[in-house]
Amino acid sequence: MKSTPTTTKYETAFEEDVAKGLTSFPKYLLSKYIYDEKGDKLFQQIMNMPEYYLTNCELGILQSHTASIADSFNSKKGFDLIELGAGDGKKTKVLLKHLVAKNYDFDYLPVDISQHVLDELEEALKTEIPGVNIKTQQGTYFKTLEKLADYNSRKKVIMVLGSNIGNLLHEKAIDFLKNICEAMSKEDMLFMGFDQKKDPQIILDAYNDPHGITEAFNKNLLVRMNNELEADFNTDDFKHWETYNPETGTAASYLVSKKEQQVKIDKLGLDIHFDAWETIHTEISQKYDDNIVQWLAKEAGLEVIEEFSDSENCYKNYIFRRKDL
Ligand code: AVI
């Protein structure tokens, strides 16, 4: 049965994106919508799972290369450390502790869409690392970057941890890097984490844990549609499925309909038909190697000037500069 939206006017981007994604073929949903309050909590749990090696790998890199990383951040007039997507700051605190202990002259500007996340981070830093001069920035990455482009009295270090770039297709990742590049001056740098290609089984296990946490995280898209769009998805009728293509380095998440079914999304006036075993593509988590990272950098007008990794090259944090200045 054909399913077309009965209305073209949507109140929110979520409504519009859901209507577009579920009336396309093949069906898809955007992974950014996983992150409501429950999705944030599930992602915290994912980061604490042994299978989700990314967090510990990056934490290990920050712990074992703290002094060199801090040194590369520094300049004569000190620096402003701008972190995009600050979260709970667990990994960043390793750097902040060192920077404060060694009396570096810096301000810390965490950027997050959620004021609640920023308030909690500020509160935690007050007691855990009181020497940090924190200036929280609430807003989207792009809006904040535009604003911070004029922040030029001293060196800017833009930091993006967690391999967040991996949730973007290459084309979008280049746009993201270009936006950052445009906000950078000659002396500024970008410090960014990229999960690396590795044994495909390790990657599959990270996104297909036996505890069912990643499954609940993926299915939170269905739960959100039920809660916010008056939909009647039965989460048990969908299977969480993960694939990894070792050639392209792309891990992809799907929700697969276990049977032929009809789902109503009342708020959008939609009746969505699923064939048995039809898919909804929900997320990509791209894995990289040096060649891909250098190519992305070049396309965006950046160049890699240094890299830090763990002993098994499981994960890398690269430092980039603008190439054209
Ligand atoms: C936030 N992002 C980098 C995570 C990732 O690894 O793609 C989200 C995630 N999805 C499933 N597990 C974790």
Automatic annotation (TrEMBL):
Biological processes, Gene Ontology terms: methylation
A Pfam family it matches: Methyltransf_33
Domain of life: Bacteria
Identification of the protein by name: Histidine-specific methyltransferase SAM-dependent domain-containing protein
Domain called Histidine-specific methyltransferase SAM-dependent: residue spans: 14-321
Chain coiled-coil ranges: none
Gene3D superfamilies per the UniProt record, alphabetical: Vaccinia Virus protein VP39
Keyword Isomerase: no
UniProt keyword annotation of Methyltransferase present: yes
UniProt keyword terms in alphabetical order: Methyltransferase, Transferase
Molecular function per GO: methyltransferase activity
